[in-house]
Design brief:
With 339 residues, the chain is of the alpha/beta class. It has helices spanning 11-23, 109-122, 146-159, 173-179, 193-200, 216-228, 256-263, 272-276, 279-291, 318-334; strands at 2-5, 27-32, 37-42, 60-64, 84-86, 90-92, 98-102, 126-128, 163-166, 182-185, 206-209, 234-238, 268-270, 296-300. The strands form 3 sheets. The protein has an 8-stranded parallel barrel, surrounded by 7 helices. Strand 10, helix 5 and strand 11 (206-209) form a beta-alpha-beta unit. Manganese (II) ion (MN) is lined by residues 104, 274, 300, 310-311. Manganese (II) ion binds next to loops.
Length: 339
């Protein structure tokens, strides 16, 4: 942290601040300028006093952090990109673009198995499907719960595709972990700290979605919760944020991809389905996501979107998904990646 003194602060006042810095457990380093004095407070912040409180002293102008508040997630701490192996064949964060596809919700055995076969044929590496659905309305389809998880396990057995599914309640982490290859934490739960801590104790990778009102710093702090509990396998997912625009369901923040790439070593996935809310806009934003440097995509696919129990309007029909995958190849290659 850097403590900037007000101009005209006396030597005695500077010394008072230095004494406080020592009391809080840091080493002060005074830099005397022509106009004003600044003091560096040196030391790891974890488990120590809060330096920001020095701003309450009358001769302190401001307290400025020089390091990011997230540590384990930060590229300041780990420069090389994190790669996460899922099963035997899939690596997230490597050269290959990983596409996760499937229905928003697991609705029935036929629906899931048929979709699983179709997305696999088109080149998806991971099957998605919600068994616990976080719905805005309590009257809307809430998911099949454990019965849905069992269907996902069955689909994995049949197709060989690893599965990703959402966990909504900290009490369900154990049961979701039993069936899933990746735990998904949704946008609405990005700051559910009890859930993040529980997922941090899980033995499976976690895909963490950005909340609709979450800054990139808050998003990375949420990832830090999982990492700091001992789970190193966190995948970040940009899925759109809420803005004044209503033509799309959310505003897919593609600039978050290069920003995250700069600030963290964790893999980054883009979800253009929730990002746009309309099937027509999914493919262009998927291409753009890969062009911007994402490691993969999360795409909703439904065999009959008109009959979907959730998120039908943004779901691709299997043939549209296959078409998108064909076109995606050129974008992946242009971004020096493989599909
Ligand atoms: C989902 O993936 O179906 C979902 C509910 O996503 P989000 O948390 O991004 O809204
Ligand atoms: Mn959905």
């Amino acid at each position: 942290m850097i403590i900037v003194m007000r101009s005209g602060a006396t030597e005695k006042e500077v010394q008072e601040v230095c004494d406080k810095i020592v009391q809080l457990g840091y080493k002060p380093h005074v830099i005397q300028g022509v106009e004003r004095t600044i003091i560096g407070a040196i030391g790891d912040e974890r488990g120590k006093g809060v330096l920001q409180s020095l701003e309450t002293l009358p001769h302190v102008e401001k307290v400025v952090p020089i390091l990011q508040p997230y540590k384990l997630a930060s590229s300041e701490v780990k420069q090389e990109k994190t790669t996460i192996a899922i099963g035997k064949d899939v690596v997230i964060g490597g050269k290959k673009i990983v596409v996760m596809a499937g229905p928003c919700g697991v609705e029935s055995e036929e629906q899931l198995l048929e979709t699983a076969e179709q997305v696999k044929k088109a080149g998806a590496a991971i099957l998605r499907g919600g068994a616990f659905k976080p719905r805005t309305s309590p009257y809307a389809f809430q998911g099949l719960a454990e019965a849905g998880l069992k269907l996902l396990a069955k689909a994995r057995e049949k197709t060989g595709l690893p599965v990703i599914t959402e966990v909504v309640d900290p009490h369900d982490v154990a049961v979701v972990e039993k069936y899933a290859d990746i735990l998904q934490i949704g946008a609405r739960n990005v700051q559910n700290f009890a859930l993040l801590k529980k997922a941090g104790k899980a033995k499976k990778p976690v895909l963490l979605k950005r909340g609709m009102m979450t800054t990139i710093q808050e998003f990375l702090m949420a990832a830090e919760y999982i990492l700091s509990e001992g789970n190193p396998d966190v995948i970040l997912c940009e899925r759109g944020i809420r803005t004044f625009e209503t033509a799309t369901r959310n505003t897919l923040d593609l600039s978050a991809i290069p920003v995250l790439r700069d600030k963290t070593h964790l893999p980054i996935i883009v979800d253009p389905s929730h990002g746009t809310g309309h099937w027509r806009y999914v493919a262009p934003m998927a291409y753009a996501g890969i062009a911007a440097g994402a490691d993969g995509l999360l795409i909703e696919v439904h065999r009959k979107p008109e009959e979907a129990l959730s998120d039908g309007p943004q779901s691709l029909k299997p043939e549209k998904f296959a078409e998108m995958m064909k076109h995606l190849k050129a974008f992946a290659e242009a971004a020096d990646r493989k599909l």
